[in-house]
Amino acid sequence: MLVPISWLKEYVEIKMPLQDLMWRLTEIGLTCERTEKINGEDVLDIEVTANRPDWMSILGVAQEVAAIQNTKVKEPALKKIKIPKDSWPIKLENNFQAIRRWTGIIISDIEIKPSPTWLQKRLISVNLRPINNVVDITNFVMFEMGIPMHAFDYDEIKGHLMKVELAKGGEDFTSVDGISYKLPKNAIIIKDNERIIDLAGIKGGLNSGIKQTTKNIFLHSTINNPVLIRRASIALGLRSDASAIYERGPDIGGTTKAINRVVDLILETAGGKVSSKIIDLKDKDYKPYNLKLRLDRLSNVLGININKENVIKILDSLNLKPKLKNKEVICLIPTKRSDLKIEEDLIEEVARIYGYNKFPLTLPQGEVRKEKIAYFQDDSIQKKLREIMISSGYSETMNYSLVSEKTIKNSLGKTENHIKITNPVSEEYQYLRTSLLPSLIMATKINQETKIKLFEIDKVFPEENYKISAVANGVEFREFKGVIDLILERLPISDYEIIFETKDNIWHPTKSATIKINDKEIGYFGEINPQVKENFGIKDMLWAFELDIETLHKNIKQKIYRPISNYPPQIEDLTFTFPAKTRIREVINSIKKTSQLIKKVELIDIFENAFTFRIIYQSFQKTLDNKTVKRIREKIIRNLNKNYAGKIK
């Protein structure tokens, strides 16, 4: 909500410096962290909470400024409308489930022209474009009083009939700014004898909008069902200043006052005369109502004592007309304060104006819950994975969870396997992603570096499982595969197997593999499919992996620490040659299983088809002699020759 200081000063005197004003407004709930210059004016940028529709107006903010300064608001004076003896014909047929109150009036013989300078200046200061005197006045009053208004060309209302209906869904509608829409079901529409002329609460229709030739107008102010407005606004992807106010619920008792204000300004700037009585359709009378505040209850809830004179003063500054009766305060709640419904609401009003910073400081008491809360998420493994990736030279990226149909097809995926958003903000963000890899491939394409190593940790859909994915180019396969080995070693995870096949087309058909443990897939790694690279316009070889974090977590083995042996190890390096495509991890595991005296096996060198392993022999009971080590060595040689066709060199 933009609030120009000069406009605000029309209704309330500001006695404090701008920075102090911003701090005090923030302290009472009107968060105001910055100002901006618009057309040379200082303008406050205020964050309005969902329960305070009265703050969606300059007068509403002025009331808060008056409350913190203990002054009064100067509301604009209204002239009495002269009602003609004979009203022009207009018939309104309402649906009170859609519009709870509908107030309107006809003005004839007006002149459409540019707005006066003062009015244009006011609208520009809240980032609105001046259009003409009538439209600008309806917008001005909406910002001034927080009640949306709309003006129709009276002569364009066919049959001078207006009836409120709910859209069936799929109807065509062209808004006053010339944009066409397909209406969603249950949008509130107003029709004349022939067509839809208004998308109530969101946009007026082009067919009944104010034109340069307009002479007679029908002005109306409606209080619409906020739920229907919000649903239609979301379905259309169309949020106007009016719909933002309607979603919060404007002052249902203020429509006649707002109409009066608009009539005064139109007669002043566009001429003309009132040609009907004020039509006011409502499902019931809306009047201010009484709300009681017990002083002892106030003290019990706040935990401090605020003397009754101060309480009366605070409630009076909020224009709640407080009256003290014994130990109770009776307030008269105006209809614009629809947020005040129970006694605790009044207690909150007293507390926020009194100042939460004046409350004594106390430390909260109680026991810290030991059991995990329902939505607790252990992200320790994600932190560990992030540390491993960063220490391995990878840079973290954060991409949108939504991808386009083109991205899915470029990745050789199927759109039917993705959840499609009903109302996407653009075609680029239509589908929830099932893999992090397409976004990483696109990030690789955008970056111009010859050597890129990127990773991401985030959810995929529809399962909402967390994955870790990475892509790298400009590196050798062994370097790339090393980070996968590092992840599995550091977690730690063992006893996994690698199957040289993958299910998804994004992977190279012969240069990719699946990592499994107990027949459960942990993830995939390998080269990206050349067709996918071509689709994304990438020429370099691209390595990638994607691992399921939940599966990793479930298979982490507990680390067991053993004491150091008192006896020295024997260390020797053995070099074997193997046929092509021999799985070296299986070879290492086979060596480890040969004897319990083998404490560690490392692959320390590779040359062509020759692999050198460093084997450490050690016992906790004695120093191993050469004969013992020789027996184990010979057994290793026999096993590798028998099972893997390995030959010692």
Strand order of the largest sheet: 19-22-23-27-26-25-24
Largest sheet: 7 strands, mixed
Rg calculated over all Cα atoms: 37 Å
Helix content range: 25-40%
Mean pLDDT: 92
Number of helical runs? 19
Strand content: 25-35%
First-residue to last-residue Cα separation: 80 Å
Helix/strand structural class: alpha+beta
Task: Show unreliable segments.
Answer: none
Give the oligomeric state.
Answer: single chain
Describe the structure.
- The chain is an alpha+beta fold and 649 residues long.
- It has 19 helices and 31 strands.
- The strands form eight sheets. Strands 19-22-23-27-26-25-24 form a seven-stranded mixed sheet, with helices on both faces. Strands 4-7-10-11-12 form a five-stranded mixed sheet.
- Strand 2 and strand 3 (41-47) form a beta hairpin.
- The chain is elongated, with a radius of gyration of 37 Å.
- 35% of the residues are buried.
Write the layout of secondary structure elements.
Blueprint: E1 2-4, H1 5-8, H2 18-27, E2 31-38, E3 41-47, H3 58-69, E4 91-93, E5 99-108, H4 117-125, H5 133-145, E6 150-153, E7 161-166, E8 172-174, E9 180-182, E10 188-191, E11 196-199, E12 203-204, E13 217-224, H6 226-236, H7 241-248, H8 255-269, E14 273-274, E15 279-282, E16 289-294, H9 295-302, H10 308-317, E17 323-325, E18 328-333, H11 343-354, H12 380-391, E19 395-396, E20 402-403, H13 405-410, E21 431-432, H14 437-446, E22 452-460, E23 465-473, H15 477-490, E24 497-499, E25 507-517, E26 520-528, H16 530-536, E27 543-548, H17 549-554, E28 570-577, H18 584-592, E29 598-607, E30 610-617, H19 626-644, E31 647-648
Parallel strand pairs: 4-7, 19-22
Antiparallel strand pairs: 1-3, 2-3, 5-13, 5-14, 5-15, 6-13, 7-10, 8-9, 10-11, 11-12, 16-18, 17-18, 20-21, 22-23, 23-27, 24-25, 25-26, 26-27, 28-30, 28-31, 29-30
Helix pairs in contact: 4-5, 5-8, 6-7, 10-11
